[in-house]
Amino acid sequence: MKKFLISLFMLLLAVQGTAFAAETTDEVNKMNRVDFTNNRFNELFKGEECPIAETDKDFYESVKRFVYGDVAQLGNLSLEQRELITIVVLTANQQPEILKKHIGGALNAGVAPEKIKSAIYQTAPYVGIPKAVIAVETANEVFKKHKIKLPLESDRVVTEETRFEKGLGTQVEIFGEGMKNAADKYPKSQKYIARFLAEYCFGDFYTSPVLDLKTRELLTLCMLVSIGDTESQIKGHIQGNLNMGNNKETITAAITQCLPYIGFPRTLNALKYLDQTVPE
After folding, report:
1. DSSP string, 23-57
2. Is the peptide bond before 151 cis (omega within 30 degrees of 0)?
3. 187: helix, strand or coil
């Protein structure tokens, strides 16, 4: 009986010790998240707070912690990838004032101006030219503030004679040989769509060497996720991402990076399409 009571006492001590360790770990994780949030925010924005930091402090602290602590720590994305994703999502949602801050943040984090511009240009075929133009003008404003000489050097590698051929070649590289017969899936009156996609979307924009195809596919997926009602295109570009070497972890992190800017419903839909395309 005495041995049993001693064993029971030792067990209780072990359980209490485990609980204490868990509480301690939670406190450490909480502190690490606070430190990470502040460090990431300062890295991007050099300590420049949003005006609502004073007028709506509780709300501001909540979203700051979520965006630059919770979401920013999830997954295997680089800071450059995160900022380029944020830039194209804000372009798609036409949020020029917040976009302005993130373009400045991307520059502060060392993202090349050419990459920022090329990412914005790529949004035009997916979210429409007007939104892309507004984003280009916003970027120019920020670049001038940072004393970046405009125009930037041209990254165009196609001519009027080669844009279809090179664009189609890029489609084949991403989606496979079946793209050579892409026009066959359209009715006779709509076969021009296949040519437009090859020449304009993939010829004019995807062929630029400023961003590799692995990055471009990730950005395109995030644009599609942000505008909604694009299930078939999202699933197609999930496969394109896989073909370019982005695994499920990376794709999950990229979709989650969109979450603060597009909300839970579209994010959850995109994650559902990812699970349907790449089951656990």
Report:
1. HHHHHHHHHHHHHHHHHHHHHHHTT---THHHHSH
2. yes
3. coil
Q: Look at residue 38 and tell me whether its pLDDT is greater than 60.
A: yes
The two three-digit tokens of residue 258, written as one number? 């969109």
What are the φ/ψ torsions at residue 116 (nearest 5 degrees)?
A: -65, -50
Residue with tokens 């709300």: 59
CB 238 within 8 Å of CB 277: yes
Tokens of 19: 């609980």
Residues 6+ apart with CB under 8 A from 133: none
Distance CA 40, CA 217 (A): 25
Which tokens is 202 given? 């993939």
Q: What is the mean pLDDT of residues 161-189?
A: 96
Handedness of CA 218, 224, 227, 232 (dihedral sign): negative
What is d(CA 235, CA 255) in angstroms, rounded to the nearest whole number? 13
Tokens 């511009």 -> residue? 117
- Sign of the torsion angle spanned by Cα atoms 221, 257, 98, 43: negative
Taking the model in full, what pTM does it have?
Answer: 0.89
The tokens describing 97, both together, are: 């004032």
Backbone angles phi, psi at 95, to 5 degrees: -120, 70
**pLDDT(22) > 60:** no
Does position 155 have pLDDT exceeding 60, yes or no? yes
Q: In whole angstroms, what separates CA 264 from the centre of its chain?
A: 15
Give the tokens for residue 152.
Answer: 């930037």
Confirm if 197 and 183 have CB atoms less than 8 A apart: no
